[in-house]
Amino acid sequence: MMVGLIDGRAVLIEFKGLKHFCYVNTFRKAIVGRRKAFSEGWGYALLYEDGGSIIDLLGRKLPNSTVNLKIIMDSFGHINRSEFFREIRSADEKFSLKDIAALCIQNDFFIETSPWRITKIPNNYTWKMFLP
User: Fold this and answer.
1) Alpha carbon distance 121, 25 (integer Å)
2) How many CB atoms lie within 10 A of CB 127?
3) Of 2, 12, 41, 85, whose CB neighbour count within 10 A is largest?
4) What is the pLDDT of the chain when averaged over all its residues?
5) How confident is the model at residue 35 (pLDDT cuts 50, 70, 90)?
6) Is the pLDDT of residue 65 over 80?
7) pLDDT tens digits for range 78-128
8) Where are the beta strands (DSSP E) in 1-132?
9) Left if phi > 0, otherwise alpha if psi is -120 to 50, otherwise beta: which for 70?
10) Whole-angstrom distance, CA of residue 88 vs CA of residue 3
11) What distance in Å separates the CA atoms of residue 53 and residue 17, rounded to the nearest whole number?
């Protein structure tokens, strides 16, 4: 969505559902969208459905049990669906979609869907590149 501001500036805003916010395809499209916006002199924002942003997810406190998930990711570079949900179910804390998204954003992970796994973003890329 393109938004014109009162001062004449324009911002390209991309909305994604929280469920899909950290998918690899969202990351790729955001790279292309940001490049296009900047080449046209526009701003760029990546938001999820309730208007939240990467800034909100960077500031979100994660459940303590995400430490195990980070250890697995650091050791193997990814975690598959069954391992991920086994870790979540074994935790004493509840995980929300925002917790999963915050885990990905704060640690520069994204979700691949075929096969489903959470993977470390390649070097030289980060979710923080989409900050204003």
Assistant:
1) 12
2) 23
3) 12
4) 89
5) very high
6) no
7) 888 888 888 888 777 788 889 999 999 999 999 999 889 999 999 899 999
8) 2-4, 10-16, 43-48, 78-80, 109-113, 116-120
9) alpha
10) 39
11) 11
The answer to whether the beta carbons of residues 130 and 28 sit under 8 Å apart is no
| pLDDT score, position 67 | 80
Q: Taking the alpha carbons of 104, 110, 113, 115 in that order, is the dihedral positive or negative? A: negative
Q: Omega of the bond prior to 115 within 30 degrees of 0, cis?
A: yes
Looking at the whole model, is its pTM more than 0.90? no
Structure tokens at 106: 């704060």
The reported pLDDT for the residue numbered 16 is 93
- Tell me the CA end-to-end span of the chain in Å, nearest whole number: 16
| C-alpha closest to that of 22 among 95, 121, 96, 94 | 121
CA distances from 77 to 93, 108, 109 (A): 24, 11, 9
Q: Does the structure show a pLDDT above 80 at 48?
A: yes
CA angle 77, 66, 16 (to 5 degrees): 80
- What is the spatial distance between Cα 66 and Cα 115, in angstroms, rounded to a whole number? 22
